[in-house]
Amino acid sequence: MSNQLSKKYGLTTAICTVVGTVIGSGVFFKAEKILTETGGNLPIGILAWILGGLIMVSCAYAFAILATRHEKVSGIVDFAEALLGEKYAYFMGWFLAIFYYPTLTSVLAWVSSRYICVLIGWDITGPQCMTISGVLLISVFVLNTLAPRLAGKFQVSATFIKLIPLFLMAIVGTIKGLSNGMLIENFTTVVNPDVPVSSGLFKAVVATAFAYEGWITATSINAELKDAKKNLPKALVMGTLIIVAVYITYYIGLAGGIENAVIMQGGEQGAKIAFSSVFSNFAGTLLFVFVVVSCLGTLNGLTLGCSRGFHAVAARNAGPKPEVLKEVDPATGMPSNSALLGLMVSSLWLLFFYGSQLDTPWFGFFSFDSSELPIITTYAMYIPIFVSMMFKEKGLGVVKGKIAPILAILGSIFMIIAAAFAHGVYPYQAAKANGEFSLPVLFYLITYALIMISGAFFMRKKKSKK
User: What is the C-alpha separation between 143 and 400, in angstroms, rounded?
Assistant: First the structure.
């Protein structure tokens, strides 16, 4: 067994990892939620997509600058180590491996299954959906572990396939909406005017965080990317700009095809109804198959990062059993042990997601939304990196060395404040009005603290063996 990852991915795969991991479930899964959170106020919804996109691009650009200077095992962990030292890098890697990657991967397994069930006509929270979720989760880990090059080719193919329904809806939906007046009506009519603009905007921006998330996964293949110092920055910047353009035009096209109220009431059927309305039932169903492929591409991209999460920690001789988890299979060039542990942790988070969000809460106060809050936590953990970047990275000039990290810091802070309103303040007020108690952010933070404390235990354990 070797401990070194081979250089097997090019620029195209890196861009497709950025675009393919981000574009997928979120744009379909959260479009209806953004409309609901804003009360069907389309301009505010578009503003939320723009703000979320600008935050993503600003953070990606800052990391792209760092990528031109630091290359080791896993981009974001490398940057944390270079700027803040081994301890911060360890905790960043631990959080990504045991919290961030597996929570998103598990949610994506369910979302992919969700749209398969929509096509078939099954309940999206029933046993069929959860069984399919488990099968998809195992299958995509097996694909990435045993055939990583095939997984890379699937990522490229899925990226181009998923752009088909988005581009068609953006173009045809907009043209149809302008010709029949639907687009103007949706722009000028607010379905629920009682929803405050400020709170609606905050909640909607947090919803876009899930739709825009996943781009950081591209940094996990830093050590496997050919000419990484040149190709990773290109992939991050080009990929994120493509994503913002596609999302906003798709969202406008969607408004040209169907009333906002119908999308809001349609739930999981909303996207399918919109495609059928614009392209006829048969064509709409066919394009919705592409939506399923789109979700699978996103799941594959997140699995790519999740399977390498524990390896990034172990490569620094840290975490549980580093001598086992840092091994790389010479036949596949994959950290197979790390991938297996990643699958196990993702399975546990899939169980948590079902028990906290899709059924009568199993976990009481700790039933928080694992699809959004871990994402916001990453923005909080980015801030020290960006601050350190301003003072430690010399010779970058004013734009790259000062303005870029400042914009990334401001964007990250905005995300944290928005999350407090979306998941902390208002849910608590609503529960209090009903004589209940609920403060999801608080109990999420307790969970986060417990997980990080467990990481500290493994770090001390490693030191005690020296």
Answer: 38
Residue the block writes with tokens 């208002």: 426
Q: Are 124 and 118 a contacting pair, CB within 8 Å?
A: yes
Residue 334 DSSP SS3: strand
What is the pLDDT confidence band of residue 203, given thresholds at 50, 70 and 90? confident
Q: What is the CA radius of gyration of the chain?
A: 21
Structural tokens at position 258: 């169907």
> Which pLDDT score, from 0 to 100, does residue 270 have?
67
Longest dimension (CA), the chain: 73
| Cα–Cα distance list, 281 to 120, 261, 286 (Å) | 14, 20, 9
Assess contact for 22 and 215: CB atoms under 8 A. Answer: yes
Average pLDDT over residues 254-268: 76
Which pLDDT value is given to residue 214?
Answer: 67
- Per DSSP, helices labelled H in 40-126 are 42-67, 75-84, 86-95, 101-120
Q: Please give the Cα distance from 316 to 136 (Å, whole number).
A: 31
CA angle (169, 171, 172) in 5-degree steps: 65
Given a cut of 80, whether residue 19 has pLDDT beyond it is: no
Q: Where are the domains of the chain?
A: 11-464
CA–CA gap between residue 287 and residue 99 (Å, rounded): 33
* Rounded Cα–Cα distance for residues 228 and 233 (Å): 8
| Prediction pTM value | 0.75
Whole-number Å distance between alpha carbons of 280 and 75: 45
> How many CB atoms neighbour CB 362 within 10 A?
12
Strands (E), 197-297: none
| Partner residues linked to 334 by β-bridges | 329
Nearest Cα neighbor of 100 from 414, 373, 325, 441 is: 373
Residue 343 has pLDDT above 90, yes or no: yes
Cα of 249 vs its chain's centroid, Å:
20
CATH architecture of 11-464: Up-down Bundle (1.20)
Please enumerate in sequence order all residues whose Cβ is within 8 A of that of 219, keeping only pairs 6 or more positions apart, or say none: 63, 67, 74, 75, 76, 78, 79, 232, 236
Closest CA to 251 of 44, 107, 108, 422: 44
Which residues, in sequence order, are bridge partners of residue 328? 2
371's tokens: 């699809």
